[in-house]
Structure to design on (448 residues):
């Protein structure tokens, strides 16, 4: 009798599994919807998840995934409702409940409701002592390290770069009728105006081997108004060239004529090489200039021959050196999204660094070679992220109102200058990696 009842029970259970989603359809639907969300096809995920609302109304995972899908589709009200329901159902699982509340706050922020987001995050903060959770909350609502604003006013300021000594920051500013290059100290005190070219917009300064000389990009003012370009396109004409100027002597030498369409120069750690992007050959590719054994006071275009490093059907741009001077990081659109790649200075041993479905831009390698800062477009915003040089351990650095772009490290890797429009105009900010935002700081921030 015992065996008979056991076998009958097993048969009945299997029949119930077939008639409902509980044993087969539910796990498959949830797994498939997660894959669809990761692949960036939320509408397909919705078609799998919505039928489960009635048959599995007690499963918080259904509501959580549906909230993610709705959020991706811009259905903020629906997304928030699903996350709130999932939070209620996760009542006996504090860790998962915290994760869902975090997604609820992210959704509110994504669609501009900071008051609701802060209310949710205050509740999360009250219920946790986990430093990782505190850090994630901090990154969601602001910078994770203490930051000070260096430039002020209504004029746009952008393209910061540190001098080799770390004493000064060169940058571009539209304080007159054109964009000019200036020097300021790390407290934001202007020390020097470097360029005086009212008919051109000068930007992207980079220090050469002799730190008294700056290499920079120049565009005719008649061609376009100065603007901060997130990522160039090979299909868009670039009317720009390169110059070298003495900071104090005001002696300027043309390096590449305007027709070359060159942008985003970055110097090597020793300052004797410059890497840049150009669409001179009909596609955005990477090129190298070598200033070794060249007298900067007498340099002429004839002394320099650009060396092409990449040849691809898709755009390659935004190059930057690793501290050994033998490798570079850059951005390419050869996948579905712009991603970071690395290769050696000869254009070989190429490797994708940030596989994913979110666009990544503007890499900057820390002088100690340990990390790479870059801009990522996700959650309806552009913020700065940090990743280890091996492509692991991604973490968010900024999360305030507006976009944060153009990161650049100080020579000692202890701070990061970047550009943000959180104050209305583009301004330069300085983040101190030795001063993380504390829990007390976060409490005050969430009370605003």
């Amino acid at each position: 009798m015992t065996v008979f009842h056991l076998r009958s029970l097993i048969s009945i259970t299997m029949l119930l599994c077939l008639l409902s989603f509980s044993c087969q359809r539910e796990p498959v639907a949830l797994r498939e919807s997660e894959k669809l969300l990761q692949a960036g096809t939320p509408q397909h995920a919705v078609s799998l998840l919505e039928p489960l609302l009635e048959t599995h109304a007690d499963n918080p995972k259904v509501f959580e995934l549906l909230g993610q899908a709705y959020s991706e589709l811009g259905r903020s009200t629906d997304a928030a409702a699903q996350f709130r329901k999932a939070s209620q159902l996760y009542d006996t699982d504090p860790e998962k409940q915290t994760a869902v509340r975090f997604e609820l706050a992210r959704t509110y922020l994504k669609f501009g409701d900071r008051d609701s987001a802060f209310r949710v995050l205050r509740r999360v903060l009250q219920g946790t002592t986990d430093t990782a959770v505190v850090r994630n909350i901090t990154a969601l609502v602001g910078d994770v390290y203490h930051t000070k604003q260096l430039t002020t006013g209504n004029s746009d300021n952008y393209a910061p770069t540190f001098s080799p000594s770390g004493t000064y920051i060169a940058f571009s500013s539209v304080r007159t009728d054109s964009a000019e290059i200036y020097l300021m100290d790390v407290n934001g005190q202007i020390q020097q105006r470097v360029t005086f070219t009212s008919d051109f917009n000068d930007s992207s300064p980079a220090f050469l081997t002799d730190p008294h000389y700056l290499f920079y990009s120049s565009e005719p003012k008649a061609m376009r108004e100065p603007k901060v370009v997130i990522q160039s396109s090979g299909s868009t004409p670039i009317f720009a060239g390169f110059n070298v100027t003495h900071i104090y002597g005001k002696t300027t030498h043309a390096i590449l004529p305007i027709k070359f369409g060159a942008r985003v120069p970055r110097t090597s750690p020793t300052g004797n090489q410059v890497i840049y992007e150009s669409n001179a050959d009909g596609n955005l590719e990477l090129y190298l200039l070598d200033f070794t054994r060249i007298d900067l006071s007498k340099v002429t275009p004839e002394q320099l021959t650009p060396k092409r490093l990449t040849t691809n059907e898709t755009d390659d741009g935004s190059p930057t050196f690793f501290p050994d001077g033998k490798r570079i990081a850059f951005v390419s659109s050869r996948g579905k999204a712009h991603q970071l790649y690395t290769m050696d200075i000869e254009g070989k041993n190429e490797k994708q660094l940030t596989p994913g479905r979110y666009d990544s831009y503007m890499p900057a390698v820390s002088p100690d070679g340990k990390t790479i800062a870059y801009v990522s477009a996700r959650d309806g915003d552009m913020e700065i992220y940090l990743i280890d040089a091996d492509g692991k351990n991604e973490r968010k650095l900024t999360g305030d109102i507006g976009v944060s772009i153009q990161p650049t490290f100080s020579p000692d890797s202890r701070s990061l200058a970047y550009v943000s429009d959180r104050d209305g105009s583009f301004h330069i900010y300085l983040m101190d990696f030795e001063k993380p935002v504390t829990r007390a700081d976060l409490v005050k921030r969430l009370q605003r």
Q: What stands out?
A: The longest helix spans residues 2-19. The longest strand covers residues 427-436. The radius of gyration is 26 Å.
